[in-house]
Amino acid sequence: MKVSGLNVAANPDAQRGISGTEDFGAGLKARQFHVALALALFPVPAWANSGIGFLMVTVPAVIISLLPVIFIEAPVLARMLGVPLRRGLALSAGANFHSTWLGALIALGVDIPLVGLGGGSGFPPNRAVLVFTLLPMFFITWWIELRAIAGKLPEVPRPRVRRAVLVANLVSYAALVAMIVLTPLFIFYDQMSYRDRLYSTVYSALPWQRKVEEYFTKHKRLPERSADIGVDSIEPRREVRAMSVQAGGVIVLELRFPGDDSIDGKRLVFTPVVSGEAISGWRCRAPDLPRNYTPGTCRDPQ
């Protein structure tokens, strides 16, 4: 009996391919562990005010696209390796689960020394950076999947496995790039990039807040204008066009984001909270900034 050009009686691996769903189910518990580990490395809360590394920036995208990639690579592997589609699906699932969690660990291992040496938090999470950083991750996942699939098919010549895995990854990464660029599925990367920059902008008001607090401590009243705290204006910087002190010690920061009308010219407003004879804190508002770009500390409760 022959299936897809392989003699089943003479090829135990092809026999296993016919019952590929059994092979797929046998490793389900291990794959659930892999997914849990990968999700544990999904650093969503850390995006609030920092970059997420140099290679780790790709990990959320890889996790989100895991299932589509499995189904994209399965027919390519089945055709080029000469195995049934079910067997190709099992090979694709196992290889991609391995490359997801192991690739995340490798990315983390690369990022830790790079971030430590560079003194920064890595690339800001936007779609352009994501596409760029997919290139090194392509070679990492190709290497991991090659080893995983070659171990499952020892009877298939290594060069054939190498070509099959390469083509499958080229197809899946091309599809992933198309999804990143052409669909809104990954737009949250751009939103996180803006919020990352806006969080750093919030800290621009800290020196002025200290001056308002010093003025209040000395005069027992809040300043009414910038000149009261010894400053008239600031030099425009990357994200700040202007900043001023208004009545009641309120600090108004005007944002500078050329080319993006949804943010450019909008304001962050910092209001002092007076408790007794001291300023106990500050309340930040973003009265005309889109909520999805507003830093969490400046959001009004819904």
Concise description?
By secondary structure, this protein is an alpha+beta fold. It has two domains: 2-182, no CATH class; 199-298, Glycoprotein, Type 4 Pilin (2-Layer Sandwich), CATH 3.30.700.10.
In terms of topology, how is this protein built?
Elements: E1 2-3, E2 6-7, H1 12-18, H2 20-26, H3 28-40, H4 59-64, H5 66-81, H6 85-118, H7 127-152, H8 158-182, H9 187-202, H10 206-219, E3 240-246, E4 250-255, E5 267-275, E6 278-285
Antiparallel strand pairs: 1-2, 3-4, 4-5, 5-6
Helix pairs in contact: 1-6, 2-6, 3-6, 5-6, 5-8, 6-7, 7-8
Q: Work out the helicity level.
A: 40-55%
> Would you tell me the structural class of the helices and strands?
alpha+beta
In whole angstroms, the N-to-C terminal distance is: 66 Å
| Overall number of structural domains | 2
How many β strands by DSSP?
6
Shape: elongated
What fraction of the residues are assigned to beta strands by DSSP? 5-15%
Largest sheet at a glance? 4 strands, antiparallel
Query: Strand order within the widest sheet?
Result: 3-4-5-6
Low-confidence regions: 1-52
Q: What is the typical, i.e. mean, pLDDT?
A: 75
Specify Rg, calculated over alpha carbons.
27 Å
Order of helices and strands: EEHHHHHHHHHHEEEE
Count of DSSP-assigned helices:
10
Give a structural overview.
The protein is of the alpha+beta class. The protein is 54% helix and 11% strand. The chain folds into two domains: 2-182, no CATH class; 199-298, Glycoprotein, Type 4 Pilin (2-Layer Sandwich). It has ten helices and six strands. It has a four-stranded antiparallel β-sheet, covered by helices on one side. Helix 1 packs across helix 6 and helix 2 (20-26) runs parallel beside helix 6 (85-118).
